[in-house]
Specification:
By secondary structure, the protein is an alpha+beta fold. It has helices spanning 2-35, 39-60, 66-90, 103-106, 114-117; strands at 98-102, 125-126, 130-137, 141-147. Helices cover 59% and strands 15% of the residues.
């Protein structure tokens, strides 16, 4: 009987050690990832993480539908990727004003809606106010636009 208790105790200690090592590795990976970016992009990444936590809470407590949850998670993932790509591309610690919208929302920011985006290549300036960054399909098509600011 004592040998079974010892074996169980050793297994628990081993599992705790593995969990601790995995948590430390995750923390190291996370901080290394954040270290590559300046304070503005890092703050943005933390905000996005908090948004994901809030979405998880809302779906767990039936405050939003599964469809809204999936759409929002996809929108957040696309937004995160766009900001990180822009930061890597330019080397600047700047979070541009990006809008990730689905087809039914495009006409709220661009006259003509998705028709205005037909055949448009990424980087194209639309109406002098927006830069079209591209589209991503994740269950539905998401369009990413950057609002241009005067310098």
């Amino acid at each position: 009987m004592q040998s079974r208790v010892r074996v169980a105790l050793l297994i628990l200690i081993g599992a705790a050690t593995l969990c601790s090592a995995a948590a430390q590795q995750h923390q190291t990976d996370h901080s290394n990832n954040s270290d590559r970016f300046g304070p503005e992009v890092t703050a943005f990444l933390e905000l996005i993480r908090q948004e994901e936590v809030e979405l998880d809470y809302q779906i767990k407590h039936d405050e939003i539908s599964r469809r809204e949850y999936v759409r929002s998670r996809n929108r957040i993932a696309i937004l995160r990727q766009a900001v990180l790509s822009k930061a890597r591309e330019t080397g600047e610690d700047r979070v541009p004003e990006l809008h990730v919208v689905v087809a039914s929302e495009v006409d709220q920011i661009v006259d003509g809606g998705t028709r205005a985006l037909k055949g448009v290549k990424p980087g194209t300036i639309i109406e002098g106010k927006w830069r079209y960054l591209g589209s991503v399909t994740r269950g539905e098509v998401f369009y990413t636009l950057e609002r241009l600011t005067e310098k």
